[in-house]
Design goal:
- Helix content is 73%, strand content 0%.
- The protein is mostly helical.
- Helix 1 crosses helix 6 and helix 4 packs antiparallel against helix 6.
- The protein is elongated and about 75 Å long.
- The termini are far apart.
Amino acid sequence: MLWTGRILTGLFALFMLGASIAPKLLQMPVAEATMAELGWPAGYSFLIGLIELTCLVLYLIPRTSVLGAVMMMGLLGGAMATQIRAGSPLFSHILFSIYLGLFMWGGLWLRDQRLRALFPLAREPSAPPRSRDVAALPVSSQ
């Protein structure tokens, strides 16, 4: 599980760096054009890139990974709201933040035992009551 989580985390980090953070921090024309299409004023892409990078670094540090994931979800929620406001397609654009969030949290869940204990996939079945425990149960009066 640990290595699968690390791989998912690495893929998420590489995607965020290559597809979102680097174009904004390098002030590539495609980043400004995309932000303008979504209704953002000029000059905000660099600041958003810095915020994304901060969230990603916090996510990658084991001690602050949950904080980074929560902050990244806030950022992804804002991206989703922007896509909704812009009237973008549902499955390819609006829900893309959900897809990224699931990928990010999945990687963290697989690499962090404390998170798996907090959110188990399946609860262990409770043991059936023993015969002496059944005798101690209250009887309903119907």
